Amino acid sequence: MKTTKIRWGILSTGGIARRFAGSLRKSVTGVLTAVGSRSLPSAEAFAREFGPARAHGDYESLIMDPEIDAVYIAPPHPMHREWATRCAEAGKAILCEKPAGMNSAELREMLAAAQANGVFFMEAFMYRCHPQTKLLRETLRKDLIGPVRMIHATFSYPAANYDPRERRYARDLGGGSILDVGCYGVSMSRLIAGELSGRHFAEPLQVKGCARLEPQEKTDLTAAALLHFEDGLIAMVQSGVALKGENAVRIEGELGSITVGSPWAVRHGESFLRLTQYRSGEITTKIATDPHDDLYAHEIDEVGRALASGEKESPEMCWKDSLGNAAVLDAWLREAGVSYAD
Ligand SMILES: NC(=O)c1ccc[n+]([C@@H]2O[C@H](COP(=O)([O-])OP(=O)(O)OC[C@H]3O[C@@H](n4cnc5c(N)ncnc54)[C@H](OP(=O)(O)O)[C@@H]3O)[C@@H](O)[C@H]2O)c1
Question: Would you tell me which CATH number, out of the four given (3.40.50.300, 1.20.1260.10, 3.30.360.10, 3.40.50.1220), belongs to the domain 127-294+325-336?
Fold first, then answer.
């Protein structure tokens, strides 16, 4: 029987594909219908665990499956361009893991395919769809901390079972912290700069960057960028795939600050917005957020909402927003001396 829910196909059976499949069960609008893997036994095991779902032993069969409406693209970043383009040509709605392309040129190609085929496309910055981020936007609009001068945004994690051939480090699999997690700090800084100037996002006028490179792969293990926005607003973005970081966002204004305790993976017990105002002594207010909600279910339901209303992009991460993010990442990689060209 045909369901009215969005019938999802998941492309790959890796770490984030598993998280997404778990969240699909908690979503209101989506249902897992099929999974595709390079290995049929892997797809079958995934379908058994998260299904009922159809199992395909290659990606092509998944995207051609007539029973699915939308595809979640979750292999390593260098494969996003090809499979997003093929999904668009097959008429499927696309939720593509970040970074959507390896660079702006790839992303433009993917978006051109989505546009030509009239399909929905969204880059999967899940935190953008979480109520905590909406609360941060509202808090910024209230102008509670005076003129904002600095943003600090960090996302880095330690190297567990470090292997330079693994996707987080290997050059041919798009390894490196700038693309893996630096993209979050860049997108958050652009969001904050946007809200402060009455827009949904804003672009920096200048990007400076540096990095420590992996000795063999020449991908970046730890990196930092300075983004210089209008009116002298500066963002300092830190990323790492071999260093445990604080993973917070701090927004410093002349009359106070806002800290987001767990901005990306919004977790119970760690998630909060802390507002400190200096105007009348120092007053700190902790604004409760609701981290009980399932992070990825919000993203899935945002896609469901957009598809139900016939939208081809989501306001939470529209195409222009993704293109702006990719342009900053291009500049940061260039500054840091990281290249994925052969
Ligand atoms: N939004 C988030 O919260 C979040 C979190 C983590 C990762 N991500 C993004 O999701 C993507 C995948 O990350 P992950 O952590 O899930 O990676 P992972 O655990 O290594 O899984 C990647 C999967 O991609 C498939 N694959 C296809 N070609 C491959 C190749 N040559 N080498 C290795 N795997 C290959 C494999 O699935 P099959 O064998 O089934 O084909 C593999 O299991 C990345 O682009 C990453 O940036 C997003």
Answer: 3.30.360.10
Indicate whether residue 77 lines ligand 1 (CB < 6 A).
yes
* Ligand 1 centroid distance, CA of 76 (Å): 4
What's the pLDDT at 1? 42
C-beta of 165 in contact with ligand 1 (< 6 A): no
CB 298 within 8 A of CB 130: yes
The DSSP symbol for 232 reads G
DSSP E strands in 195-336: the ranges are 206-213, 220-228, 234-240, 249-253, 256-260, 273-277, 283-287
Q: Provide the residue type at 286 as one letter.
A: K
- At residue 112, the 3 state secondary structure works out as helix
Show me where the domains of the chain are located.
6-124+296-302, 127-294+325-336
Give the separation between CA 285 and CA 278, rounded to whole angstroms. Answer: 12
Angle separating helix axes 183-196 and 131-141, nearest 10 degrees: 40
What's 214's DSSP letter?
Answer: P
Nearest CA to ligand 1 atom 21: 14
Q: How far is CA 37 from CA 9, 13, 40, 78, in A?
A: 11, 6, 6, 16
Residue 129 DSSP label:
G
Helix axes 104-117, 319-336, angle to 10 degrees: 160
Residue ranges in the chain modelled with pLDDT below 50: 1-2
CATH fold of 6-124+296-302 reads Rossmann fold (3.40.50)
User: Residue 290: what pLDDT?
Assistant: 65
3-state secondary structure of 233: coil
DSSP 317: B
User: Which residue type, as a one-letter code, is found at position 39?
Assistant: S
Ligand 1 in reach of 74 Cβ (< 6 A): yes
Q: Supply the DSSP symbol for 314.
A: B
